[in-house]
Structure to design on (1133 residues):
């Protein structure tokens, strides 16, 4: 691989490039102070965005592989295509914007940063997201989700917009099961049996409305929607009924 | 292969454990296509396997011998070859015998002798036995009694090619780019408790059924005991084997449609069953009550194929991935979505089924109608 | 005759704490605590103390300690104190030694030689608190296959009656008379609340409990007490009792003292007479006779209820079980060596039958070899102590387990083995109204439900660790068990491999 010059914007063709080479190249570019990187022809390369930890913008064209942005900090990833499983896994900060859909466990254990997915997501989205100090992860999903959305969520904000439902209802089962922190704002209908037993539902209060408006506006800006249109429909707030859902579980 | 269990599972573990990449591709119009695409796709998931096993199944492979059973057989030595050919000539009419073409490939070490035979059952079987049952019995006999030989493919107009190596190397070794079929499945293997032997790679097959599998089936112990009651000998000691036998039992012997078989292997939860309208509830409850021992529990994705059908199924809480792509008449199933995009840049649709949801491509129907029938049909 | 049998226990009363309130006197049904009027002082009769801890538990100042009598005989490996004292008892009375509860001898407890597996890496454990974890079990005969119409998907197979259990644990048969009505009420309420079944035992069903019929197994035993059409039809399951683990091969006597007015009414026998349960069922002298009784009960209940057959685990259980399935039993209950009783000859309790683990393993294996395991559900009992025992039983091949002693312990039983005396100070195994009121059925039901809730959480935890989210995937899945300290033969019978292999 050739020596990297100090240029602010670089394009990479990832055709037939293994993830180790690709990510090594990204680390070189970042070390050389590159501000913006564009990667074309991405087909399944893993861990893109990991190990960089500086505010660089990476645009990905194609289908990035599993664990995109795992342990990520500060990076901004923009995906033109679909992301696979584990994107934003244990993310500490930064931003992931996916112009497409994402696979399973998007935002798994994320502690900070924000993830915007234009379309739907797979299983266990937002599982065990948690907040710490002033870090508060956010995950906004434009479409719908499969089962176990927000499973044992411990913090952060998860928004499910259901834009592609076209009058249908969300089908996810076990939403928020084990939830003991954070909040889910859900647009569209779900039935009681689809919710975990630790989940309460309510209307949004003024604070909720503010948070939601901010996130939906940001989402709309990323993907060319009208935020007001999106906000006009009714949202339901899902919240943890208990901070310690298992306080009564044990005997001594 | 005598002592097949010992060879396949040398440490005598409960079962052979392996994780993997899987890919399937079917033209539901029946048009034949080459292996170039699927080889590229499975190679793209190289990191999901560890070089200890790769394999392919191809349907529509031998149109010139479409009515004959095609046996693919591996021999560890020449004497096994001689002995087995005697056996074949005694029990079948062998119409054609030839060595399977291979090319020297750097990473493929110690390959066994590979032969294929096109055979007819003829007058050799007992009158009250079907050709298929006779073939199953003889394949089991060769695989468990004869020395140093293993039949790894036994269907008509289809064939399995597999061995120890990464799938792309296996494809190169068997010159698979030269074959054409309307349905291909592929597997890259990551075994944890076997040194890898050629017969132990996927696809697993009996007659024209093939299975490629990713994951571990925690219910293996009881699945196996249940199947043993119906006469299946799980000689390979692998969970993939029980999938193949379960499907054979339920589809071929019990006459159940694949849509229901999926509800046996990955049934809805009891409380979901209770929420169904009465007719579906009774059906789902009954099959779960009767076939509870065949529930495949634990993380799995399988692609099951036989002539005319390719089936994708995941466990009921989807602990293993499956991406589905559709383009015209072509249906793609893959462990990772990127592998589909790699070989088809303008898919009509790409999606992931929910846990336990069956995806079927059926010959003669566009993949989309095949899938839709299942999703909106009586069972779901 | 002067008895040579020394006291088993000593009651030690701390005079600094005792306030002479006499609660211990009132609580003790064995007259081990008494009030000496002359000296105005609470005193002991140690020889009467059975170690049931009732007085100690209720002493408001915790003044009482119960301790074993430290009396030592000369050390003798062959002649232990129990052997010596039993001989004295018989020499003084000429009788058969009678006892209660289950076998207390040191035969191997195979549950303690079996260990479970757990998932690591190749297979994720499942989080039972967040993800679905199914313990639902259906008891009843299953066909070999399901038939459906290929076009309409209409079901053509009609199943024999099935019984749903929310968890694979039921309450063992304990008859009214042996235990009190309040115990029956507690069991019935808890079973209903938890979605399982309780079992009347052979003493009939009190009319006040008919409303729990849907969660009730009614027993038809050799004495046929209280058996009539309404009794059979109110139940969810009808059980033919052939034998019992505590006393295989023999019948029983409910002494006249326990046959109170209500017991007499329920058993439909005269008050104040002994209720005799013959050793055999006199309409079953062979296996074809069992089929005759099974079908008599099916006719009487219009084929709406599974018929269960309970036997004691004995040497050739596997062959017997095979015959029972072929005779039409929908459920087979095996009661092992440690199964308990309200009263049994000690020599029988301690010397007859086989451990339930071995019986279970061999029966399950045999029924599978014969291809008929699906035709009957297999329930086992006899000494199940905790959820670990339950899950190991399931993995060995049981569909469900029964708990008797464990349920009574939940109600307060201290396993003092005095059931046969009818004096149970905890109000469980007695029909003395001043004692039976010590069980409050509401509280009793809550204690039982709590126990089952705890067990079901624990079972889910263990299943999750195995990477299994439906109990049917563990049932008979012996690969998830490993043995420790077993001989090759024991491991072979249990169908398990040794740990490390």
């Amino acid at each position: 691989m050739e020596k990297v010059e100090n240029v602010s914007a670089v394009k990479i063709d990832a055709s037939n490039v293994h993830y180790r080479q690709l990510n090594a190249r990204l680390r070189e570019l970042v070390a050389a102070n590159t501000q913006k990187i564009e990667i074309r022809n991405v087909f399944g390369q893993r861990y893109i965005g990991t190990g960089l930890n500086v505010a660089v913008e990476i645009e990905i064209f194609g289908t990035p592989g599993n664990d995109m942005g795992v342990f990520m900090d500060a990076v901004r990833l923009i995906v033109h295509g679909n992301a696979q499983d584990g994107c934003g896994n244990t993310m500490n900060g930064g931003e992931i914007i996916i112009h497409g859909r994402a696979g399973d466990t998007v935002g798994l254990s994320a502690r900070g940063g924000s993830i915007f997915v234009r379309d739907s997501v797979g299983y266990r989205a937002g599982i065990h997201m948690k907040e710490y100090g002033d870090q508060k992860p956010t995950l906004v999903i434009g479409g719908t989700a499969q089962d176990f959305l927000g499973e044992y969520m411990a913090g952060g904000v998860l928004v499910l917009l259901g834009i592609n439902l076209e009058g249908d209802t969300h089908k996810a089962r076990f939403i928020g099961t084990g939830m003991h922190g954070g909040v889910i704002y859900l647009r569209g209908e779900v039935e009681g049996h689809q919710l975990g037993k630790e989940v309460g539902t309510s209307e949004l209060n003024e604070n909720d409305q503010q948070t939601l408006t901010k996130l939906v506006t940001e989402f709309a800006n990323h993907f060319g929607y009208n935020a007001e249109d999106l906000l006009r429909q009714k949202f339901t707030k899902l919240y943890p009924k208990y901070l310690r859902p298992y306080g009564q579980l044990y005997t001594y | 292969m005598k002592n097949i269990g010992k060879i396949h599972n040398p440490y005598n573990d409960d079962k052979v454990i392996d994780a993997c990449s899987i890919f399937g591709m079917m033209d539901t119009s029946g048009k034949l296509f080459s292996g170039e695409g699927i080889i590229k796709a499975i190679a793209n998931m190289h990191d999901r396997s560890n070089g200890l096993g790769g394999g392919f199944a191809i349907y529509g492979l031998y149109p010139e011998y479409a009515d004959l059973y095609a046996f693919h057989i591996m021999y560890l030595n020449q004497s096994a070859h001689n002995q087995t050919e005697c056996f074949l000539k005694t029990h079948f009419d062998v119409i054609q015998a030839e060595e399977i073409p291979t090319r020297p490939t750097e990473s493929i070490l110690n390959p066994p002798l590979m032969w294929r035979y096109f055979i007819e059952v003829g007058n050799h079987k007992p009158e009250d036995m079907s050709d298929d049952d006779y073939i199953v019995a003889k394949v089991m006999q060769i695989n468990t009694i004869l020395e140093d030989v293993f039949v790894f493919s036994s269907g008509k107009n289809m064939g399995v090619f597999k061995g120890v190596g990464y799938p792309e190397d296996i494809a190169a070794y068997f010159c698979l780019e030269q074959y054409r079929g309307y349905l291909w499945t592929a597997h890259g293997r990551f075994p944890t408790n076997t040194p890898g032997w050629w017969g132990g790679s996927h696809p697993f097959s009996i007659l024209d059924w093939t299975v490629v599998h990713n994951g571990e089936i925690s219910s293996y112990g009881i699945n196996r005991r249940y199947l043993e009651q119906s006469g299946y000998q799980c000689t390979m000691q692998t969970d993939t084997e029980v999938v193949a036998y379960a499907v054979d039992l339920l589809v071929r012997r019990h006459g159940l449609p694949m849509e229901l078989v999926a509800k046996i292997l990955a049934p809805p939860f009891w409380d979901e069953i209770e929420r169904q309208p009465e007719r579906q509830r009774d059906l789902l409850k009954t099959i779960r009550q009767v076939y509870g021992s065949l529930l495949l529990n634990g993380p799995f994705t399988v692609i099951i194929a036989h002539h005319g059908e390719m089936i994708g199924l995941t466990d009921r809480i989807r602990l293993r991935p499956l991406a589905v792509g559709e383009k015209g008449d072509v249906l793609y199933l893959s462990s990772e979505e990127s592998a589909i995009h790699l070989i088809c840049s303008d898919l009509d649709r790409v999606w992931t089924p929910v846990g336990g949801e069956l995806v079927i491509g059926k010959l003669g129907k566009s993949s989309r109608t095949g899938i839709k029938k299942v999703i909106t049909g009586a069972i779901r | 005759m002067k008895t040579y049998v020394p006291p088993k226990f000593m009651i030690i009363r701390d005079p600094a704490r005792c306030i002479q309130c006499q609660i211990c006197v009132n609580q003790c049904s064995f007259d081990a605590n008494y009030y000496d009027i002359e000296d105005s002082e609470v005193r002991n009769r140690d020889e009467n103390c059975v170690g049931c801890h009732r007085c100690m538990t209720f002493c408001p100042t915790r003044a009482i300690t119960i301790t074993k009598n430290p009396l030592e005989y000369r050390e003798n490996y062959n002649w232990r104190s129990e052997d010596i004292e039993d001989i004295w008892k018989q020499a003084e009375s000429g009788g058969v030694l009678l006892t209660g509860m289950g076998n207390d001898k040191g035969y191997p407890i195979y549950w303690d030689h079996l260990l479970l597996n757990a998932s690591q890496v190749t297979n994720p454990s499942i989080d039972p608190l967040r993800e679905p974890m199914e313990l639902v079990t259906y008891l009843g005969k299953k066909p070999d296959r399901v038939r459906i119409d290929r076009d309409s998907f209409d079901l053509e197979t009609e199943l024999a009656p099935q019984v749903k259990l929310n968890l694979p644990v039921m309450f063992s048969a304990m008859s009214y008379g042996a235990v009190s009505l309040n115990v029956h009420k507690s069991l019935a309420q808890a079973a209903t609340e938890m979605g399982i079944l309780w079992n009347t035992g052979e003493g009939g069903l009190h009319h006040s409990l008919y409303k729990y019929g849907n969660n009730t197994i009614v027993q038809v035993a050799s004495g046929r007490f209280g058996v009539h059409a309404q009794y059979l039809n109110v139940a969810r399951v009808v059980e033919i009792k052939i034998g019992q683990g505590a006393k295989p091969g023999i019948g029983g006597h409910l002494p006249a003292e326990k046959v109170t007015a209500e017991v007499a009414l329920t058993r439909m026998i005269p008050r104040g007479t002994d209720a005799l349960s013959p050793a055999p069922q006199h309409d079953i002298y062979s296996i074809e006779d069992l089929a005759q009784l099974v079908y008599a009960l099916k006719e009487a209940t219009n084929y709406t209820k599974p018929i269960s057959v309970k036997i004691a685990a004995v040497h050739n259980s596997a062959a017997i079980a095979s015959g029972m399935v072929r005779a039409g039993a929908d459920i087979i209950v095996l009661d092992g060596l440690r199964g308990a009783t309200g009263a049994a000859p000690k020599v029988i309790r301690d010397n007859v039958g086989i451990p339930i683990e071995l019986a279970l393993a061999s029966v399950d294996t045999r029924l599978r070899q014969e291809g008929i395991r699906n035709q009957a559900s297999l329930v086992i009992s006899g000494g199940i102590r905790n959820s670990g025992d339950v899950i190991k039983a399931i993995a060995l091949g049981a569909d469900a387990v029964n708990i008797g002693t464990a349920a009574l312990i939940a109600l307060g039983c201290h396993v003092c083995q005095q059931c046969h005396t009818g004096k149970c100070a905890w109000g469980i195994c007695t029909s003395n109204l001043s004692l039976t009121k010590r069980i409050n059925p509401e509280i009793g039901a809550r204690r039982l439900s709590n126990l089952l809730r705890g067990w079901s959480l624990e079972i889910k935890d263990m299943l999750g660790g195995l990477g299994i989210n439906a109990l049917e995937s563990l049932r008979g899945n012996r690969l998830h068990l490993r043995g420790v300290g077993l001989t090759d033969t024991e491991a072979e019978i249990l169908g398990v491999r040794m740990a490390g292999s």
Observations:
- Chain C touches chain B at residues 119, 122-124, 126, 131-132, 134, 136, 138, 142-143, 145-148, 150, 153-155, 157, 159, 162, 368, 371, 373-374, 466-470, 472-480, 497, 501 (CB under 8 Å).
- Chain C has two domains: 9-95, 137-249+281-498.
